[in-house]
Specification:
binds ligand PTJ; Rossmann fold; two-stranded antiparallel ribbon
C-alpha cells in the first residue's frame, strides 16, 4: 500500500484510488473496475469533486423511495466492495434491505471474496452466492442476468451503484424501481434509472444513510410527495450544467 501524505493537494482522490488498487490486489475488483474508476475520477473532477444540489435532491428522493419500499435490495459489485463496504452494510440496516452480490465480470473466487468482505463489515446475510437460489432476469445477456430468487428477482426497489445500462433497462422492464450512483450524468444507466445520484459513491452513500435516518420519522404522504416532485431527467440536466458551469469558470482563470 502506498503512503499518501495528508498534505497532498489531491490526497482524497488518491486515497480513493488506493482503495481500488488494494481491492484489486485482494481479489475484489476486476481489472476493468480500475478503468471504471478512472472514468469516474474524470467526471468527478469536472463536477468539482463535491456533492452538488442536484445530487442532494436525488439523495433525498432515493431516501424517500427506499423508506417506502417493501423489499429493497442493494446490488454490490467489486468496486463497491472495495470502496465502501461498511457504508453499504449501514445503508442496508437503515432501510432493512438485503444485500446481493452481482457481477458483470463473473468470477466465483471474486464473488466469495466480496461476500467475505461484506460479512467482515457487519453484513449478516449476503445473497447472490448460494447454490440453488439463482434465477435469470430476462432481457439481458451478460452475467448480471443471474440474480437471487429471494433478492433482486423479487425486489421492488433495487440500488445499483456503478452499473451498466443493460441491467438497468432489464430491471425497469421487470417493473422495478432503480436507484443508481453514477458520476457520469450521460451514461445509459444514469439516463435509464428512476433516480440517479450523480456523485462519487464514497461521498454520497453516507449522505443517503443520514437522509434515510432523518426521514424515517416522516409520514408516507410526505415521502410520496418527495418522489412525485422529483424529475430525474431534469436533475440530470442540472448535473450536466454543473459541469458546464465549472468549465466556464475554469476557462476564465486557466
Ligand atoms: O465487479 P463487476 O464485475 O460487477 O464490474 C464492475 C464494473 C464497475 C467494472 C462494471 O460495472 C463496469 O464496467 O461499469 P462501467 O460500465 O465502467 O460503468 C461504471 C460507471 O460508474 C461509469 O459511468 C463511471 O463514471 C461510474 N463511476 C466510477 N467510479 C465511480 C462512479 N460513480 C460513482 N462513484 C464512483 N466512485
Amino acid at each position: 500500500m502506498q503512503i499518501i501524505p495528508k498534505s497532498h493537494p489531491r490526497a482524497k482522490s488518491l486515497l480513493i484510488r488506493e482503495k481500488l488498487v488494494n481491492g484489486f490486489d485482494n481479489g475484489l475488483v476486476a481489472k476493468e473496475g480500475l478503468l471504471a474508476q478512472g472514468r469516474g475520477e474524470a467526471f468527478d473532477y469536472l463536477l468539482g469533486e463535491k456533492t452538488g444540489k442536484a445530487a442532494m435532491r436525488a439523495i433525498k428522493a432515493a431516501a424517500a423511495q427506499l423508506l417506502l419500499a417493501e423489499m429493497p435490495v442493494i446490488s454490490v459489485n467489486g468496486n463497491i466492495a472495495a470502496l465502501c463496504p461498511k457504508q453499504i452494510v449501514k445503508l442496508s440496516k437503515q432501510i432493512k434491505g438485503k444485500i446481493e452480490v452481482n457481477l458483470f465480470y463473473t468470477n466465483e473466487n471474486r464473488k466469495q471474496a466480496i461476500v467475505k468482505t461484506l460479512k467482515k463489515n457487519g453484513a449478516s446475510e449476503v445473497l447472490g452466492s448460494k447454490i440453488g437460489s439463482s434465477t435469470k432476469l430476462s432481457g439481458i445477456d451478460s452475467a448480471r442476468r443471474i440474480v437471487d430468487k429471494n433478492g433482486i428477482f423479487v425486489a421492488d426497489v433495487v440500488v445499483v451503484p456503478l452499473e451498466d445500462g443493460d441491467r438497468t433497462t432489464a430491471l425497469r422492464k421487470a417493473g422495478k424501481t432503480v436507484i443508481t450512483f453514477d458520476l457520469n450524468p450521460l451514461s445509459r444507466t444514469s439516463q435509464t434509472a428512476n433516480i440517479t445520484i450523480v456523485d462519487n459513491v464514497t461521498r454520497s452513500v453516507d449522505l443517503l444513510v443520514e437522509e434515510c435516518k432523518k426521514m424515517s420519522k416522516n409520514n408516507k404522504k410526505s415521502l410520496y410527495k418527495i418522489i412525485a416532485d422529483f424529475d430525474n431527467k431534469k436533475n440530470l440536466r442540472e448535473s450536466v450544467n454543473q459541469i458546464r458551469d465549472n468549465l466556464t469558470r475554469r476557462s476564465k482563470i486557466a
